[in-house]
């Protein structure tokens, strides 16, 4: 019996201890997308993420707009970060980002070049959607139960069509109506059945849009219960081919075209765009 106990003790003593995951923090930039043109002397919303494999523990992301000469930290807990830039010099601007944990600073793992005050139109051959990435401002289910039209102002940098809207649904999961507007005029609407979480509503006929014209994409909920993130559109959001202006979120309780605003709210509406075929 004593011999068995000694053997068991020896096994315990020599059993390998699981190795701790090594720190390898990596930063990401989601928006703006590469090579887009952004307005001069206007706030630009930069959104990104950061990961550290299985180790986790991301605390900050440092970003630089002078090729790494100076770095500015931003809070990246929850593996997400955002910052407002105010581009004031025309021409190319490269944003670098690196992630940090409490003990390790990662290399400058990501960079993104954009064009301030330019007219660059990056290539786009396939249908694509806007993506409203999460920031530190939480998305919440608004308890409002009134009928309301919720929308977002949007322009595109080339001709094409809006083929669908992707909605981030809130507590109301019943039927809704998706719409596209221009200068207060309704261009298209599409009724859709109830859904939870995320819902793509495809228009029966794609809605033609032209470069540089502002449109409003919206949906009507008869009983409120929508998802909203306040203070989201504090700067221009630019993702090929979409250009979303400051304070882009709009709504209307009186029916019809939504034009009222509330603290830069994001109502979780992501348009899907199909570029016009070349030669047309």
From TrEMBL:
SUPFAM superfamilies cross-referenced by the UniProt entry: E set domains
Domain DUF4082: residue ranges: 138-267
Gene3D superfamilies assigned to the protein according to its UniProt record, in alphabetical order: 2.60.40.650
Keyword Signal: yes
InterPro entries per the UniProt record, alphabetical: DUF4082 (IPR025141), Ig_E-set (IPR014756)
Organism in which the protein naturally occurs: Lentzea flaviverrucosa
Secretion signal span: 1-21
Protein name: DUF4082 domain-containing protein
Pfam family, one: DUF4082
Superkingdom: Bacteria
UniProt keyword terms in alphabetical order: Signal
NADP listed as a keyword: no
């Amino acid at each position: 019996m004593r011999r068995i106990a000694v053997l068991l003790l020896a096994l315990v003593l020599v059993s390998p201890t699981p190795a701790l995951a090594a720190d390898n923090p990596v930063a990401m930039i989601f928006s703006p997308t590469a090579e887009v043109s952004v307005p001069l002397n206007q706030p630009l919303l930069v959104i990104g993420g950061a990961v550290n494999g299985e180790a986790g523990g991301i605390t900050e992301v440092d970003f630089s707009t002078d090729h790494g000469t100076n770095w500015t930290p931003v809070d990246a807990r929850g593996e997400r970060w955002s910052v407002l830039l105010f581009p004031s010099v025309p021409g190319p601007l490269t944003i670098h980002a690196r992630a940090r944990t409490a003990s390790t600073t990662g290399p400058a793992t990501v960079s993104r070049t954009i064009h301030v005050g330019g007219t660059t139109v990056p290539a786009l051959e396939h249908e694509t959607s806007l993506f409203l990435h999460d920031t530190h401002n939480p998305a919440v289910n608004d308890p409002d139960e009134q009928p309301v039209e919720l929308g977002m102002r949007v322009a595109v940098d080339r001709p094409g069509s809006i083929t669908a809207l992707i909605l981030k649904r809130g507590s109301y999961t019943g039927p809704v109506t998706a719409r596209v507007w221009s200068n207060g005029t309704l261009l298209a609407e599409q009724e859709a059945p109830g859904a939870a979480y995320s819902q793509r509503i495809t228009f029966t006929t794609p809605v033609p849009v032209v470069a540089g014209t502002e449109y409003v994409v919206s949906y009507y909920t008869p009983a409120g219960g929508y998802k909203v993130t306040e203070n989201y559109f504090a700067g221009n959001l630019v993702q090929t081919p979409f250009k979303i202006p400051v304070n882009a979120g709009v709504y209307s309780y009186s029916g019809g075209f939504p034009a009222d605003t509330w603290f830069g709210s994001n109502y979780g509406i992501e348009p899907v765009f199909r570029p016009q075929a070349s030669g047309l």
